[in-house]
Amino acid sequence: MGDIDLEKYSSAFTLSDMEIFVFPELMYSLLLANIMSPIVWSWRQEDCFKKLDGKDPYKKLMRLRQFIMDQFEFNLDLQTWGLTNKNAEIKRFEKYLPAGEISKSNALFGYEGDTYYYDVDIRKHFGLDKYNGDIIPYWKTETAEAMNAFRLKEGYKTGAGECVSLSTLYAAAAFIVCGIPLEDIYMVLTPLHSQNFIDINDGVITNNRRLVTKTMWFNGTELSNKAQRALRNEQITIVAHTSGLVHCLYKDAAIDKNIYNDFCGKLKGFLQAELSTATMVNFLRANPDYQKYFQFCRDCRGNPQFVKAEDLFNYEHLSPLRVADCSHKQMLDEVFDGEFSGEPFANRIQCEQFAEFMKKKRPDIRTEQGRKEMAGLFADYVPHPEKLMAELYDFLHIEPKLPAGEKNYKPSEPIKISTEMSREEIIGYLSNLRKTNTIADLAFYAYRDMASCDWRPFIKSAIERSPVSIEMVKEKSIEQSYQWLQGMPNESIYDNQRLAQPDEVANYKTGDGIEKAITLANIIHWREAEREITININKDKVVVEAETRFEFASAKRFQKNIIIGDK
Fold first, then answer.
1. What is the DSSP-derived secondary structure letter of residue 275?
2. Hey, is 30 helix, strand or coil?
3. Residue 440 CB: number of other CB atoms within 10 A?
4. d(CA 414, CA 74)
5. Quick check: helix, strand or coil at residue 504?
6. In DSSP terms, which residues pair with 198 in a beta bridge?
7. Of 295, 289, 419, 299, whose CA–CA distance to 345 is shortest?
8. Alpha-carbon span 97 to 407, nearest angstrom
9. By the 8 A CB rule, do 383 and 389 touch?
10. Contact at 8 Å (CB) between 282 and 219?
């Protein structure tokens, strides 16, 4: 392996946000690793999914949402994977991308796409204000196994993961459990977030643990507004698909141009909605300052009765019913009679007037003329109708900042995995593809299949990027660190001949003897970088020698000799 490959392949084990930005192939490789994972395939046997056998993929996808909500929590704790140094990371990647370009990958490097984070002070927002300005977190993307293993970590009752981990888990489960073809799943990354666009029905976007349909996207609730933040404000850095990927900075795009253009059209369609009575009400929900200019009407035994918009919206906090959806009439029935007036409230437009205007005029607010017509309707009620129209237009039309410019479209060989294939067939197919497809090859590294992978990237990653295991034993001697590792259960979070990194051993307090040995070697190397360390793996016995001899027991059945030194 050359240096560039060693850096890239070692990054398949740590999968930090920065590494994925610099080496975008890693994103799809992790998805494939999760597709190979027995954990995700075991979900098919859950009663909640077995009951849906024969049902359409969309119904299964909606059930998957609740399953992931129940089984995983969102985690962005700074201490989970430790801290690193901004300058050290920039130096590490400068031969791949200039420092100024790297800063576009992560808000902590100076990214300014979403001004919201700068309004609240981004370092304070992430809890970094107690560190000097060069300290940043090692936000590593977890495999399905590492996400599941959070159950072993103190303070967690379920699995957990950050946004990139959840998006790749969702994509893998959508394919395995819901039967949605990979051709219909697009991974969409921004500097601060990771989502999937699933091309099913009107489209579905995954957002951390939740799913957002197009109807939900424009419902004006706080959750939907938060879900919109990344695509509304940020540059999309990477789009990854089974046919290839495109990156905002790299000139070469390993994706079919027609497929990418088709995706762009579908995403833009999802992010725009027509103006209607329902979407106008949703706008009022999202912008309560405008509610004081509106009122609703009901028929009471042939007589009209009126209620202020803000009073009606208040009932949403106490009820599952919603203003202006199919439960609207039921909600009006719940309103206290004393809040109704027999006469219209002064200086308020009736939503029924709006509905009638829309029925007759049907203005297109995507045009200046259409917005002018609508502003005329509101002119007698709202102090600045043009401002209202500008905000309404923005609410209904999000223009995604997609990777653009002149790209050299050089489509890679598509990864053709069918929903009809078994897990074993998929692993076999990807294994045969490794020699000609880097993404498929990297998938086995992210999958941690050390029986078929070069160990040098694994050791490089373990020794250079495992700060948590170092921090946890900073008050312990080497002997005490050894005893600490020996006191853990001798079980890996990965099955068969797959291995955990030192920080996974430290976080979950469990590990096979090989994993413990590499963790101890990392601790020794951190303290005595000039000392040569050997790790001899002889099937069930592992010996670490660094002046002193340390023994561990292994069930992984490897035969290998590893030397770690200062070079």
1. -
2. helix
3. 21
4. 32
5. helix
6. 185, 204
7. 295
8. 17
9. no
10. yes
Q: Which long-range contacts (CB under 8 A, 24 or more apart) does 147-152 make?
A: 147/72, 148/39, 148/493, 149/493, 149/504, 149/507, 149/508, 149/510, 150/72, 150/73, 150/75, 150/508, 152/493, 152/508, 152/509, 152/510
Distance CA 402, CA 268 (A): 10
Q: For tokens 């919603």, name the residue.
A: 322
pTM: 0.93
Q: Residue for token digits 């034993």?
A: 473
Rounded to an integer, what distance in angstroms lies between the CA atom of residue 11 and that of residue 88? 15
Rounded Cα–Cα distance for residues 487 and 509 (Å): 9
114-123, Cβ contacts within 8 angstroms, sequence gap of 24 or more: 114/192, 114/229, 114/230, 114/233, 114/234, 115/233, 116/229, 116/233, 117/192
What's the CA gap between 60 and 317, in Å, rounded?
A: 29
How many helices (H) does the chain have, and how many strands (E)? Answer: 28, 17
- Please list, in sequence order, all residues whose beta carbon lies within 8 angstroms of the beta carbon of residue 388, skipping any fewer than 6 positions away: 290, 375, 378, 382
Name the phi and psi angles at 473, rounded to 5: -115, 20
Pairwise CA distance, residues 1 & 561, whole Å? 19
Q: Rounded distance, CA 262 to CA 259, Å? A: 5
Strand partners, 341: 306
Tell me how many degrees the CA angle 382-383-388 measures, rounded to the nearest 5.
Answer: 60
Report how far apart the first and last C-alpha atoms of the chain are (Å, whole number): 16
What are the Cα distances from residue 96, in Å, to 5, 105, 109, 246, 250? Answer: 12, 13, 16, 16, 10
Looking at 150-221, list the stretches that DSSP marks H as alpha helix, in order from N- to C-terminal side: 163-176, 214-217
What the block records as the tokens of 53 is: 């056998």
What is the residue-level pLDDT of the chain in tens, covering all 567 positions?
555 689 999 999 999 988 999 999 999 999 999 999 999 999 999 999 999 999 999 999 999 999 999 999 999 888 899 988 888 888 888 888 888 777 665 655 654 444 544 454 656 666 666 666 678 888 899 999 999 999 999 999 999 999 999 999 999 999 999 999 999 999 999 988 899 999 999 999 999 999 999 999 999 999 999 999 899 988 899 999 999 999 999 999 999 999 999 999 999 999 999 999 899 999 999 999 999 999 998 888 788 899 999 999 988 877 777 786 655 677 787 788 888 999 999 999 998 899 899 989 888 999 999 999 999 999 999 999 999 999 999 999 999 999 987 899 998 888 999 999 999 999 999 999 999 999 999 999 999 999 999 999 999 999 999 999 999 999 999 999 999 999 999 999 999 999 999 999 999 999 999 999 999 999 999 999 999 999 999 999 999 999 999 999 999 999 999 999 854
Query: Closest Cα to residue 25, out of 46, 4, 43, 41?
Result: 4
> Interior CA angle at 85 toward 80 and 86, to 5°?
115
